[in-house]
Design brief:
The chain has 739 residues and is an alpha/beta fold. The protein has 32 helices and 21 strands. The chain has a seven-stranded parallel sheet with strand order 5-6-4-7-8-3-9, with helices on both faces. Strands 10-15-14-11-13-12 form a six-stranded parallel sheet. The chain has a four-stranded mixed sheet with strand order 17-16-19-18, covered by helices on one side. The longest helix has 27 residues. The N terminus and C terminus are likely disordered.
Length: 739
């Protein structure tokens, strides 16, 4: 190939086709080497769900557009010349065009190859022209001649698929299949590029095996539950509450060893030891059936750290990845940068993530969000507090779970203290198996509180006055701003705390530890919190107040009252209240609670009341409410980009803000400002990030309190905007907006 005067050579000859060149180095990667490596990676990843041939074909053809003379001139040009042409040379469409000629399997591969930089496109219509970014439009584009690839790949790989014929008639299933293959390609591409860019020095995590983790678990629970060493430990374990927890743990272990299905339900009341029992089930099952990893899917980012801390304490430090924030850098250009390669790929044996991360990734189209999907295959996925999967997206979420179980070697566990009747969303041949079947008896045993619904709304002043009367009390409200305002009314008292996602995780952990210490010591402790304490946070108050919401939330709140059964039921009240000036916002759950209360007012925690609540909720919501964005309908159009844009479990958009108050956070900030990006670095930084509503963040940006480092990282500059009691100050930003 003839080169212009700006083209430079390195260790590779000018006649050899290049895939990448090192930044500020003479190192070069041959295109053939890159394609062979990505094919190997992608095929290996796809083999987990039986699609190695499809994965290899993706890797072998994804970058054949780089065989064009235009791209080779670009890749050998000076950095200044590259900057002028960056994003103007399309190397993705060529492989898509080549694959699209090979039948239905080829079309799936075409979607993946066309989107491996900018995201899987919508299918589009026949009327789309080459100017359209749909797949049909892309396939009509005239692209630079790249047939030189046949010099190095003389025999085309003909894609064959065993799974595609099984899902081809259902577009929803075809879309998930495409995303899973796309994930194999993207992760393979990223890993090989990262290997080249780092000259093979990438720091790869050395994780223990699942069998080794099971051995650690067995040692830990034997010492803690089954063979307590000291007399005091034996006394504690002999208490009825702990004996019941051990009984449930034994049931979970037995079910894991038996491994007789792939869809399970674990209905253990709050305080029954769900976290440890579900981990024990999962590890025994994983060894028995050879699953690769365990993925914990929980409702809130705010409780990731506590769940992960439990696992660290049992299993050790080097086995858990906490996926707090999804920092995903995507581009449509020719070259990948270090930011892009830092996206999360869930490569650890234990993953702790959120409903939002898990499900939005399953319906995503961008490389950074889809990269991890193939690592869900052959996993045990535990949906902790499954009742909190948002009603508006329940139908597509349940369909996705069912498909992961049916075709991607997944085992799903619907784990909760308030089990909704989700079996209606699964096929007759895929009904959940109960891990702890004595549901009614367990609920009666763990009843430790008296729930009382207040008939009349109350003012914030009256509520604050009531809270001040208690030495120890927890009050849970529905919104962050309400929590801050209520906290301000009583913060002058001794031992008053505020909890919300306005506090960054490390700060929140310290506050929780201080709260637990004061509760244990009998010191004054009044806590104003959002719902983040309702799931996975072990607190034990003598009295709890809960703003009116769904029965599931009320029962979860009750789980923070008299948790260790130290006092009688009558002495452990849970007051459910509403405010006089509450604005109507998502009140379907609250209204449904009041309907059920007409029948079960004295016993809202009864499993029959909970079941009635969810049945009423599903009926009142209607079929459209269960799929508010018509994701199932849009799937018929193979509208990948459109669905990704609309599928948001949390409609109120938030921005993660790095709070550089502590030494470690400041050090992390220095690395980020220097342009460094890695999964390890972003995982650590997430622990110093608070969550702000996008409109609040915009106000703070406008006033110079924040600055955007890049498209994913926002940093707090004015540290006075972070209060060590209330966290990131939303109220002040709101007041500024009103002026």
């Amino acid at each position: 190939m003839e080169c212009n005067e700006e083209m430079r050579t390195g260790s590779t000859s000018e006649t050899e086709y290049l895939a990448h060149r090192g930044v500020n180095t003479a190192r070069e990667q041959a295109l053939r080497t890159h394609l062979e490596s990505v094919a190997l990676h992608s095929g290996k990843f796809a083999s987990v769900f039986g699609e190695e041939a499809m994965g290899r074909a993706l890797g072998a053809y994804h970058d054949i557009g780089k065989y064009s003379q235009e791209f080779q001139q670009y890749i050998r040009a000076s950095e200044e010349a590259q900057r002028k042409k960056r994003g103007k040379i399309d190397h993705s469409t060529a492989g898509a065009k080549e694959m699209a000629q090979l039948g239905s399997a080829g079309v799936v591969l075409a979607f993946c190859i066309a989107g491996h930089h900018g995201g899987i496109p919508n299918r589009g219509t026949r009327a789309d022209t080459a100017a359209k970014s749909t797949l049909i439009g892309r396939l009509k584009k005239v692209v630079p001649d790249c047939h030189a690839y046949r010099e190095e790949n003389p025999v085309p790989l003909l894609p064959t698929s065993s799974l595609l014929p099984k899902v081809a008639r259902v577009p929803f299933l075809v879309m998930l299949y495409t995303r899973m293959l796309f994930s194999c390609l993207v992760d393979g591409d990223f890993l090989d590029t990262e290997h080249f860019m780092s000259d093979g020095t990438v720091d790869r995590d050395g994780f223990p095996s699942i069998r080794e983790l099971l051995e650690r678990l067995e040692k830990s629970i034997a010492e803690r539950f089954f063979a307590p060493r000291s007399a005091e430990e034996q006394k504690q374990m002999s208490k009825p509450l702990n004996r019941k927890r051990i009984e449930l743990l034994r049931e979970a272990i037995a079910a894991g060893k038996e491994a007789r299905g792939n869809l399970y339900r674990m209905n253990i009341p709050t305080g029954g030891g769900k976290t440890i029992s579900s981990l024990a089930f999962a590890l025994h099952y994983a060894v028995q059936v050879q699953r690769r990893r365990i993925i914990y899917v929980i409702p809130y980012t705010s409780i990731i750290e506590q769940t992960a801390a439990v696992f660290h304490g049992i299993l050790g430090e080097n086995c858990v990845v906490e996926h707090h924030q999804n920092m995903g850098y995507d581009d449509a250009g020719e070259e990948m940068n270090r930011k892009r390669l830092a996206s999360e790929n869930w490569d650890a044996p234990i993953i702790v993530t959120t409903n939002t991360q898990f499900f939005e990734s399953l319906f995503a189209n961008r490389p950074s969000k889809c990269r991890k999907l193939h690592n869900i295959a052959e996993s045990i996925v535990i949906f902790d507090e499954a009742q909190m999967i948002p009603l508006n997206y329940l139908r597509p979420c349940m369909e996705a779970i069912q498909e992961l179980v049916r075709h991607y070697a997944c085992t799903a566990v619907l784990c909760t203290a308030t089990q909704p009747p989700l079996e209606q969303f699964f096929a007759a041949d895929m009904q959940p198996i109960e891990i702890c079947p004595a549901v009614m008896e367990n609920a009666a045993f763990f009843q430790r509180t008296k729930i009382e619904l207040r008939e009349h709304p109350m003012s914030r002043e009256i509520l604050a006055a009531e809270l001040e009367k208690y030495a120890q009390v927890l009050c849970i409200v529905n919104g962050k701003r309400t929590a801050q305002k209520l906290f301000e009314r009583i913060e002058s008292k001794d031992g008053v705390y505020h909890l919300s996602t306005n506090l960054y995780p490390v700060h929140r952990e310290r506050v929780l530890e201080e709260i637990r210490s004061r509760l244990k010591a009998g010191q004054p402790c009044r806590v104003i919190s959002t719902s983040l304490v309702e799931a996975g946070v072990d607190l034990d108050f003598p009295c709890v107040y809960r703003e009116l919401n769904g029965i599931d939330s009320i029962v979860q709140a009750a789980g923070r009252c008299n948790r260790e059964n130290r006092q009688g039921i009558e002495d452990s009240p849970v007051y459910v209240f509403s405010f006089e000036d509450t604005k109507k916002k998502n009140f379907l759950a609250a209204d449904t609670t009041q309907i059920v209360a007409r029948k079960y007012r004295e016993n809202l925690a009864n499993p029959a009341a909970i079941r009635m609540y969810f049945n009423e909720l599903y009926d009142l919501g209607g079929e459209k409410r269960l799929d508010c964005k018509d994701i199932m309908g849009k799937s018929r159009e193979l509208a990948f980009a459109k669905i990704a844009e609309e599928f948001h479990l949390i409609e109120e958009q938030t921005i993660s803000v790095l709070i550089p108050l502590e030494d470690e956070a400041k050090e992390l900030l220095r690395h980020l400002e220097a342009g460094e990006r890695s999964r390890s670095l972003l995982r650590k930084a997430a622990r110093y990030m608070a969550s702000a509503r996008s409109n609040i963040a915009e106000e703070l940006l406008m006033h110079g309190a924040l600055y955007k480092m890049d498209e994913e990282i926002t940093v707090l500059v004015d540290l006075s905007a972070y209060d060590m009691k209330k966290g990131l100050m939303e109220n002040e930003a709101e007041e500024e907006r009103k002026k």
